[in-house]
Amino acid sequence: MNLRRWRRYAWIAGGIAAIPPMLWILIVLVAPTGWARRQVVARLEARSGRRVALEGVSVGLFGGIHLKNLEIGSPKDTADPWLKAADIQLDFGPWRMLQGQCRPSRVDVDGVELRVLRRADGSVELADLIRPVAPLGSGSRARAAESRISVRVHGARVLVVDEPSSTRVKLEDVEGEGYGEGPLEVVDQLRGTINGGSFRFAARVDRTARAMSAEAQLRAEDVTLDEGMSILRYVVPVVAGATSSLKGRMGADLYFRGRGPNWPKLLRAVAGHGEMTINPIELAGTPLVAEISRFVDLRGHRRLGSVRTDFIYRDRKITTDHFRLMVGRVPIMMSGWTDLDGRVDYEITAQGLAERLPEQARRILGDLKVDLSSLTALSLRGTLDQMAVQVNGVPLDRGVLREVRLRPDDREKLRQLSRHLRDKLLR
């Protein structure tokens, strides 16, 4: 009797346990996906304040929901979406769905196309989506931990556009992981390619109101430079205003962080440091080389060089004491700053220039009473759009040598000196 009773109870228990899976199968077979799509779109629009387009929603037999071809645009329309995603998988299981718990704990995204845009007026397209969050009380922290959402990204492409600096950079084959937890948004790592090179990126943003903070680190290796990377002129001012396309291969290691009661004050308080190398770099058409060419004839020669610098960023100013530019075999050292308004102020020292002159050139300079040491202490001042190389405060385009009042035969000697000096610099 007892055995038969336990069997009956087992059958009843098994039947009850089979109800949720059967209901889930029924949902998969007959779920009104059009209704589900409208519900998802309404929820996303309410949370983002943006117009959302979604091609379809599908429910997996073993749990999970797939969103197909999601697009999020401006608050008015989706004609120019800043986000596209071919497939988004949310880890809703049958138990959680039947209990009405529709918040995922894991999101997997494939085929993402993301645009990060800073407009010409300085406003950021996505700024309104990163809203401050009220501070959590002690009783809320456990709930925040339970609401943690892990995110994985596969095969993404990111377009970074900075209109004020005319910068346009594409990141491709992006893979990465991160999570959101209460006011925290964390990118554990993103990796991918940029112009044939590789990059790695990590970031952390705390959106707690009145105590906001952010930090980020970027490392890049073997990146091919092009005209879309004009923002580099703030760190490498010698390439500013180049008449030809920027060419070279770059490596960089950058770190920035900031704190503040709100986003505007946080951005003003951002500080950081970095290292950058560009080797080789094409110097043709750069104002620095053009100015020096007024003294030294460099025509007909490829002007390849290399750059190495480390710098700090603080108070909207990029400052360095260790900027090294190699032109031929001559090291040119620079120290100074560039600010975000585009102003530049650098001192330049061309080391070893006097030792590279032939004896004949030394005699000619002596006859002309030209102090060679004054030609090795230069300055670079002005703006990124209009800068000038100066010697003792006198622009080279005014001609430090013309001030000597040369005779015609002296000018011929200087032309010979220029050729000798060119050969020594580029040998």
Number of helices: 8
**What is the terminal separation in angstroms?**
105 Å
Count all strands and give the number. 18
Sketch the major β-sheet: 18 strands, mixed
Shape: elongated
The secondary structure category is alpha+beta
Low-confidence stretches: 7-19, 25-30, 297-301, 397-406
Description:
The chain has helices at residues 2-30, 33-48, 94-98, 138-146, 263-268, 287-292, 359-367, 408-426, and strands at 52-59, 65-72, 83-90, 106-118, 149-162, 167-181, 184-194, 197-206, 212-224, 248-260, 271-282, 304-314, 317-327, 330-339, 343-350, 377-383, 387-391, 394-395. The protein is α+β, with helices and mostly antiparallel strands. Helix 7 packs antiparallel against helix 8 (408-426). The protein is elongated, with a radius of gyration of 31 Å. It starts with a helix and ends with a helix.
For this entry, give a set of tags:
23% helix, 427 residues, alpha+beta, 18-stranded mixed beta sheet
Task: Write a concise synopsis of the structure shown.
With about 425 residues, the protein is of the alpha+beta class. It has helices at about 1-30, 35-50, 95-100, 140-145, 265-270, 285-290, 360-365, 410-425; strands spanning about 50-60, 65-70, 85-90, 105-120, 150-160, 165-180, 185-195, 195-205, 210-225, 250-260, 270-280, 305-315, 315-325, 330-340, 345-350, 375-385, 385-390, 395.
